[in-house]
Amino acid sequence: MDFTGAPVLFIPGNGGSYKQARSLASVALRKGIDNGWRNHLDFFTVDFNEEYSGLYGGILNNQVEYVTICVRRILKLYERRVTVPVSIVLIGHSLGGKIAQAVASTYNLSSVINTIIAISAPIDNPVLSLDHYYKNFYLAIQEQWTANRTLRIESTHQKSQKSLDQILFLTIGGGIRDTLVEESLSSSVFGDLHAMTSNWAIRRESSARSRATSGRTNCPRLSLFRCTSPFPTSFSTRLAAVYRRLDRLFKQPTRVAGAHDMEDGSDEHLQMFNIDDSANETMSECVGGIYPTDTSRE
């Protein structure tokens, strides 16, 4: 099988299924079809056999090691291409977001990870620390990221000196509707941008309402929408600063994707978020930095 898009790996969380990637992948597929495959994403997913990593910390390091092997194997699939993708995007739901963060620092994979998107994930602190494995795991990742990532960028033109600075780290929380991972746990001191889906107004059918993602999100509920109006100015300004800081990774940043809780499995209303009125390109340009040059995607 030949892969010609930009690689994206979905990592499920506590008791999560690899099938949760279907909703994200289906939207990416339609976007690829809409633009004639000029830019598109290749979705991969990890099967943890629905392990309850939220209840036993002893399996966390095993999951990190497994995802590391998956990342290296995925990038090998592109070796026959004339222009090989130089990095991958990791999307983690729940504890999958923490696993993605750990993969970037534990096995020196920071150079091949373009972006980490953590959805309803307890990043800096666990929801419950039931054993010493959890405590040791979180402390180890905290120490690695503290040593290898700049917490404060004084200028958007400041050069990155640490290995993890090149990774764009986005965290998405579910707000008051998420009863498993509360708002304070879904953000991170290491994150470039944090968004709460409970504050995003979206259109479903003929009405506009506020929806939110959840720690219990299942496969048909991980979906992408189009905002009924542009993001607030302050949000757009913050996002623009992030992209300027990491402009070598993102050549044409236009959109941000999120996941929401949906009442049914229908996908007729699945669309994209717009950052501003001029954002009229496709979703896959969010990962423009995955390829060495823009011409490689044609």
Number of E-type strands: 8
Reported by name, the CATH topology is Rossmann fold
SSE sequence, one letter per element: EHEHEHEHEHEEEH
CATH superfamily: Alpha/Beta hydrolase fold, catalytic domain
What is the strand arrangement across the widest sheet?
2-1-3-4-5-6
Biggest β-sheet description: 6 strands, parallel
Low-confidence stretches: 201-213, 215-298
Given the structure, what is the number of helices?
Answer: 6
What is the CATH top level name?
Alpha Beta
User: Considering DSSP H and I runs of 4 or more, what fraction of the residues is helical?
Assistant: 25-40%
Mean pLDDT reading = 71
Shape: globular
Architecture per CATH nomenclature, i.e. the level-2 architecture: 3-Layer(aba) Sandwich
Measured on Cα atoms, how large is the radius of gyration? 18 Å
- What structural class do you assign from the helix and strand content? alpha/beta
The rounded distance between the terminal residues' Cα atoms is 19 Å
Q: How large is the share of residues in beta strands?
A: 5-15%
Explained architecture:
This protein has 298 residues and is an alpha/beta fold. It has a single domain, classed as Alpha/Beta hydrolase fold, catalytic domain (Rossmann fold, 3-Layer(aba) Sandwich). The protein has helices at residues 21-34, 60-76, 95-106, 132-148, 183-186, 233-245, and strands at residues 6-11, 41-45, 88-93, 113-119, 168-173, 193-196, 201-204, 207-210. The chain has a six-stranded parallel beta sheet, with helices on both faces. The chain has a two-stranded antiparallel sheet with strand order 7-8. Helix 2 (60-76) packs across helix 3 and helix 3 crosses helix 4. The longest helix is centred in the N-terminal third of the chain and has 17 residues, at 60-76. The model is unreliable at 201-213 and 215-298 (pLDDT under 50). It is a multi-pass membrane protein. One of its GO terms (cellular component) is endoplasmic reticulum membrane. Residues 3-187 form the GPI inositol-deacylase PGAP1-like alpha/beta domain.
